[in-house]
Amino acid sequence: MKLILKIWRQASPKDEGGFQTYHLDDASQDMTFLELLDALNEKLIVEDQDPVAFEHDCREGICGSCAMMINGRPHGPGEETTTCQLNMKAFRDGDTIIVEPWRARAFPVIKDLVVDRSAFEKIMEAGGFVDVDVSAVPDANTYPVARRDAEEAFDAAECIGCGACVAACKNSSAMLFVAGKVSQYALLPQGQMEGLQRAWNMVAKMDELGFGSCTNTGACEAECPKGVSLAHIARLNRQFLKAGFKKVGEEKN
Amino acid sequence: MALLDSKIPEGPLAEKWKKHKDSLKLVSPANKKKLDIIMVGTGVAGAAAAASLGQMGYNVKVFCYQDSPRRAHSVAAQGGINATKNYRNDNDSDYRLFYDMIKGGDFRAREANVYRAAEVSNNIIDQLTAQGVPFAREYGGTLATRSFGGVQVSRTFYASGQTGQQVLLGSYSALKREIAKGTVTMYERRQMLEIVVKDGKARGIVCRNLVTGEMERYSAHAVVLATGGYGTIYFLSTLAVNSSGAAAYAAYKKGALFANPSFIQIHPSSIPQLNDYQSKLTLMSESLRNDGRVWVPKQKNDKRAPGDIPREERDYYLERRYPAFGNLVPRDIGARAAKERCDAGYGVGETGYAVYLDFEDAIKEQGEKAIRDKYGNLFDLYRKITGENPYKQPMKIYPAGHYTMGGLWVDYNLMTTVPGLFAIGEANFSDHGANRLGASSLMQGSGDGYFILPYTIGDYLADEIKNPRLPIDDPEFEKAEKEARERIDRLMNINGTTTPLAFHKELGKIMWNHGGMTRNEQGLKEGLKMVNEVEERFYKDLKISGSTGSMNQPLEKALRVAASFEISRLMLRDALNREESCGAHFREEYQTEDGEALRNDDEYMYVAAWEYAGDNKEPKLHKEPLNYKYVTVKQRSYK
Lengths: 253, 639
Hints:
The complex is a heterodimer of chains A (253) and B (639). Chain A has helices spanning 33-46, 118-125, 147-157, 164-168, 175-186, 195-208, 219-223, 231-245, and strands spanning 3-9, 18-24, 69-70, 73-74, 96-100, 109-111, 114-115. Chain A is α+β, with helices and mostly antiparallel strands and 253 residues long. Chain A has two domains: 3-110, Ubiquitin-like (UB roll) (Roll), CATH 3.10.20; 118-250, Fumarate Reductase Iron-sulfur Protein, Chain B, domain 2, CATH 1.10.1060.10. In chain A, helix 5 runs antiparallel to helix 6 (195-208) and helix 6 crosses helix 8 (231-245). Chain A is elongated, with a radius of gyration of 20 Å. By secondary structure, chain B is α+β, with helices and mostly antiparallel strands. Chain B has helices at 13-23, 29-32, 44-56, 94-104, 111-119, 121-130, 163-181, 246-253, 317-321, 331-343, 360-366, 368-386, 441-461, 475-494, 500-515, 521-541, 553-577, 601-604, and strands spanning 36-40, 59-63, 81-82, 156-157, 184-187, 190-198, 201-209, 215-219, 222-225, 258-259, 264-270, 293-297, 314-315, 355-358, 395-404, 407-408, 421-423, 606-611, 620-625. Chain B is globular, with a radius of gyration of 24 Å. In chain B, the strands form five sheets. A five-stranded parallel sheet of chain B has the order 5-2-1-9-17, sandwiched between helices. Chain B is built from 18 helices and 19 strands. The longest helix of chain B is centred in the C-terminal third of the chain and has 25 residues, at 553-577.
């Protein structure tokens, strides 16, 4: 099939960037979206042009590397699908496809479709862990966890850190990302001790790094490739509120 | 041979590790602060080791090529992680896991290492649970388990079909905690190109900053490679497309021996290749064979829909050939059995190279919900890729390259033959022999990372406290950076017509056809010639556009492909040398009457470790004999 690709090209963070149009005449519905970009890049390389930079690794929807806006939607059309899992059967012969990087102040463009998501790393370092040393821990069965809690914690923990929630949000908020971690640990006995501190610190870090506020539009949930639920944001809000009442923010870390 | 001193401690099997730990030198807290450790790779092993070493007080510098340590390919492990908790009261024990692994590895792994891996397995589950890893639970709140191939107990802990993701995120979060504390410094988006060796010891690395294109030098008292395997030499595999053996190869060139390169696991159940555009294959976890039944039609070239084939006209060939283990035979056996049926003309699907994995009976017995609870995400994944609904019709599966048991030779302390250079996780060769059992890679990676390397590395570092940091303007750093630059310039200046990806595809096809599921002398020799031919063309006709001074993904790829040629040759040579069949290494000339692997214990009961002898020179073979004191060596039987 024939396709017209309008792809955001930006040589460096300081470059202004802009769309470039590419005509692909031999695309196939059997390709995945990334294989389509591979095919385009093969041509560009041979023509001595700089290929389109994009991130990808596992190509099975779990590493969270691939990240692009396709026709205005994070990871393109399709429910709970990462770009690497997006099948070209979702498109028709003659389609024009617009491909952009994530757009968010906290995710500056590095090159073409590659953005800097290190803000997520900093949020994680602010509290995205259980404060436990390696070794002196009790037997795994010491603290039972109700099956439904374990399953809900797993649903929260399924987040792949791709950033689609931020890209989808009109405020560029990272609430769903933060909520995934806070909620996972809030549901398990292991994460209780520092639970409120965690919620407070991660939200504070998110604000500091230039992510916007959450206004509960639910775009993040709709576009999350792993279907992480908005309910986790509600749990985060409860934790955060409790942290506020307990004046956790005034405690020393 | 002094070179291959495996340093296996004396004493009874079950006491070796304990005694050894007591004999290892310690480094005082004040001295740990003066010691730097470089960790390359952030999968389960690398992240766990970095977090543990940071917590102990060392200065740790961690490197990965991705934008975040959380993306390492451990993330894609699906089925589970083994431990000998005996929570099911099914008479499990450290010895049984040890025995299963030794037997599963077809008697080509070290007894002492394997026993230690089993011994630390319970600590791992405790540790991960304490980190908040959301393992599956029973209704009563205790941890759930399931069975895996090659075993008769239920010892595999899991988090749906995303155990690797959850286990990795556990060690990633521990790593984040140490980064926040300042004990670990993280360097993302770096491709390691050279290991710096000074006075015979590993003292640093040179890497390329993938954003700026600049060369960077980092110095340390020890370097640890946690860089995974080299399974992408087949091009199509279940691995991440950027996984490669390039780091291990850099170590090999600096004198680290490369052990058993021909032992590559072909996993029996991956979604078959659907078309020529495909860039990777997706695994369908072995755990599915707990409930799924594998079959092909009894009639050749049967084109009927699976539902139209009556039960008595189906050949449940694994249950037929291996009644004791049935669908849960080890991976190498399951893979070859599928190939045998397809080669004989009984395969299904458009190409005839697929077999059915059928859940009809399980859904009838347990209900769709129970199956969804156990494998929901895998079923969704399958449906997304193939467009078919596995709740209604059987999955179609076929074997694919998956894991490399071979890797850098290490002693009991996980140190390579280069002092100060360690290898952990899939990057080393030590625990899986000629075939890895399911759910033991997360186990080995975590064990190496949390509980083994952090102790053994101290024994080496205790003697390094007097050595100051090696300045990065040392001539050895200059030399290493120069070599890396020359390699890059050479690739950039060829200016031919063929892309790195095209070369990789070509190499992959050769390796799959000549060094894949079954091998023979003629094919291996042909393969060697063909690899040489493609490599020659690579250095004449490679095309990379863009510049070295910024992000250049084709260049990154070309550097990986360049290393893959050499690893491929090493792998073919090793397969040629090993004139027997064992585990995943199946030489067609050496099989029993009913098509099982035929070992030659008299001549090949050894680890084959290869030493780099210079470019265009035959590598030198060293042998580490294997001794079995605690198991009876016999032909593997799963019948």
